[in-house]
Amino acid sequence: MKRYALLLLVLLGGTAMAQQKEVTALYEPSSINPYGKANPKAPKALQQFEFLVGTCDCVEQVLQKGEWKTGKMVWTGTYALNGMAIQDKFWNNEFAGTSMRIYDENTDEWRINFFRMPNNTPAEWVGKQDGYRMVLTPAPNAQPNTGTLETVFENITHNGFEWSVAFTSNQNQHTVLWKRSCTKRK
Question: What is the pTM of this model?
Answer without folding.
Answer: 0.80
